[in-house]
Design goal:
Helix content is about 10%, strand content about 40%. The longest helix is centred in the first third of the chain and has 18 residues. The protein has 9 helices and 40 strands. The structure holds [4Cu:2S] cluster (CUK), dinuclear copper ion and calcium ion. The site of dinuclear copper ion (CUA) has 9 residues, from loops. Keywords: Calcium, Copper, Metal-binding, Oxidoreductase, Periplasm, Signal. Nitrous-oxide reductase is part of a bacterial respiratory system which is activated under anaerobic conditions in the presence of nitrate or nitrous oxide. In the C-terminal section; belongs to the cytochrome c oxidase subunit 2 family. Belongs to the NosZ family.
Length: about 650
């Protein structure tokens, strides 16, 4: 019988009957090919290739097996895509360890329901959706410091920060006057002072309906820098074209972003008109100096300093340089040796290697042609989207249309660009199917260790048990420690993790139980103080007009209050402090038929506000199984008729 989990089917089917190679035969890469490949499916798999894969998988099994009770070597942080959360995985086991709700509502932890989470969500709490793409860990001296993880929300133009010591989101910022925060990267050196974030879409300014013309000189998008510690806007830079992905360098001086819509077009055809778009490089010290000197403007009612990084009459601004690259580039990746920004061609089979050590000269206008900073443009295959690095001079690029990862050597690509006859391509490995991001262990740091490569495939097709019309994505794990890449694991994932990041387990240090002074619930503690409440000991009901504040403790298997009375129509705030000191004894609080649910982990205070709109008896109960008598951990809210 066929067993696709072991990659040894009896019947070898070619997905959708159209082979990848037949696309290769169609010649020029166009949007039509790209669209066609997506719609029709790609990838030719013979019985031999399945069998070979099966053999390799068996060999690799021992490597990825993390036995019961054993711990993974790496933390992986996965974007939850348009599901809006961040997921924590162990690598290489690929086991999901935790979910961190961010731009979504989560009924287990009460994220989006509790007062603590609503304060963090702020104004934007009204949005129940998000679209995460790029999770990145804060750095000091080009290495992960394990303090924060930042992630974008493309859907509602937000940036969130997650504290890695508690693995909870602690700040969310809506970026003003832009639409769709997409590419997000962090300053690596000397430390993550800034979060760099691209706003993707061009919009009129002010966007008040006075014009809808994207060619208007007041229609543009902006590059954004956020103060990572304060989570406040630092500055914005107006650019030509649009902005897709970005990365920062290892000197602290430059950041670079790809632009696929240099045309400022409205539609697909228009966005593919130019043979070349560009990479825009930002000179951070020059921008900082201008702002310090007061040489900035503000826009559309916001106070954020804005500088203009557009060309004027073909002349560069002091803040930016535009480097033409082919065509609708997507991913932008700094090599872990700090030498190159690599722009991935998408509609071109090439990637463009920009020498970072030539950027000083570029900004000093020492080149006739900005393309003199390009040291190689290796041809890799169809649909290059993202590149990652093993720290041994090799790069790994995803080929969306070819459904492959290509391993290539950077030095050899440079030699070939100079005319030497050298084959810089080391290996092409089929992946299943249509990969977007890939990410090698520690690749964004100077410590890239070349052990594991995660490839996030957009299509899983036949790789898993069918789940109806909506398929999972396929996050594949590849062993890159040897000469050859070896596929070792298929991991189904929900709702498109665009990107992920891997850190060594020693780089992430978490708290076992909450600190009573934690800022996460400090405001709730302050409010309790105003009511004269000692949260660790008091079980009290405070009546304040139509508002009722119920304070109680929880300790397995009982709440401090098993009954409280309110009047119909009262606005009730329940604040619970979990005085258990034992690791892992989390309690919950659910008020039945009121849409009320929250987590209270050891030494945590959580609160939630709702209207007691129904007269009668309403049970509340603990939702995390905490004790043999967990079912008995209940209480009653008695609502008197109005
Ligand atoms: S993007 Cu999704 S595959 Cu938002 Cu980084 Cu490239
Ligand atoms: Cu407390 Cu279950
Ligand atoms: Ca274009």
């Amino acid at each position: 019988m066929s067993d696709k989990n072991n990659a040894t089917p009896d019947v070898v089917e070619e997905p959708r009957g159209v082979s990848r190679r037949s696309f290769l035969g169609t010649g020029a890469v166009t949007g039509a090919v790209l669209a066609g490949a997506t719609a029709l499916g790609a990838g030719t798999f013979t019985r031999e290739s399945w069998a070979a894969a099966a053999k390799e998988a068996k060999e690799a099994k021992s490597k990825i097996h993390v036995g019961p009770g054993e711990l993974d070597e790496y933390y992986g942080f996965w974007s939850g895509g348009h599901q809006g959360e961040v997921r924590v995985l162990g690598v290489p086991s690929m086991r999901e360890l935790m979910r961190i709700p961010v731009f979504n509502v989560d009924s287990a932890t009460g994220w989006g329901l509790t007062n603590e989470s609503k304060r963090i969500l702020g104004e934007s709490a009204k949005y129940k959706n998000g679209d995460c793409h790029h999770p990145h860990i804060s750095m000091t001296d080009g290495k992960y410091d394990g303090k924060y993880l930042f992630i974008n929300d493309k859907a509602n133009s937000r940036i969130a920060r997650i504290r890695l010591d508690i693995m909870k989101c602690d700040k969310i910022l809506t970026v003003p006057n832009v639409q769709a925060i997409h590419g997000l990267r962090l300053q690596k050196v000397p430390y993550t002072k800034y979060v760099f974030a691209n706003a993707e879409f061009v919009i009129p300014h002010p966007n008040d309906g006075h014009t809808f013309d994207l060619q208007d000189k007041n229609s543009f998008t902006m590059f954004n820098a956020i103060d990572a510690e304060k989570m406040e806007m630092a500055f914005q830079v107006i650019v030509d074209g649009n902005l897709d992905n970005s990365d920062a360098d290892y000197t602290g001086q430059y950041a670079a972003s790809t632009c696929y819509n240099s045309e400022k077009a409205y539609d697909l055809g228009g966005m593919m008109r130019n043979e070349r778009d560009w990479v825009v490089v930002f000179n951070i010290p020059r921008i900082e100096a201008a702002i310090k000197a007061g040489k900035f403007i503000t826009l559309d009612g916001s106070k954020v300093p804005v500088v203009d990084g557009r060309k004027t009459d073909g002349k560069d601004s002091e803040f930016t340089r535009y480097i033409p690259v082919p065509k609708n580039p997507h991913g932008c990746n700094t090599s872990s040796d700090g030498k190159y920004f690599i722009a991935n061609g998408k509609l071109s089979p090439t990637v463009s290697m920009i020498a970072i050590d030539r950027l000083d000269d570029l900004f000093a206008d020492r080149f006739k042609d900005p393309r003199e900073v390009i040291v190689a443009e290796p041809e890799l295959g169809l649909g290059p989207l993202h590149t990652t690095f093993d720290g041994r001079g090799n790069a790994y690029t995803t080929l969306f249309i070819d459904s492959q990862v290509v391993k290539w050597n950077m030095d050899e690509a440079i030699r070939a660009y100079k005319g030497e006859k050298v084959n810089y391509i080391k290996q092409k490995l089929d992946v299943q199917y249509q990969p977007g991001h890939n990410h090698a262990s520690l690749t964004e740091t100077s410590e890239a260790d070349g052990k594991w490569l995660v490839v996030l495939c957009k299509f899983s097709k036949d790789r898993f048990l069918p789940t109806g019309p909506l398929h999972p994505e396929n996050d594949q794990l590849i062993d890159i420690s040897g000469e050859e890449m070896k596929l070792v694991h298929d991991g189904p994932a929900f709702a498109e993790p665009h990107d992920c990041i891997l850190a060594r387990r020693d780089q992430i240090k978490t708290q076992k139980i909450w600190n009573r002074n934690d800022p996460f619930f400090a405001e709730t503690v302050a409010l309790a103080k105003k009511d004269g409440i000692n949260l660790e000991t008091d079980n009290k009901v405070i009546r304040d007009g139509n508002k009722v504040r119920v304070y109680m403790t929880s300790m397995a298997p009982a709440y401090g209050l098993t009954e409280f009375t309110v009047k119909q129509g009262n606005e009730v705030t329940v604040t619970i402090t979990n005085i258990d000191q034992i690791e892992d004894v989390s309690h919950g609080f659910v008020m039945t038929n009121h849409g009320v649910s929250m987590e209270i982990s050891p030494q945590q205070t959580s609160s939630i506000t709702f209207t007691a709109d129904k007269a009668g008896l309403h049970w509340y109960y603990c939702s995390w199984f905490c004790h043999a008598l967990h079912m008995e951990m209940v209480g009653r809210m008695l609502v008197e008729k109005a």
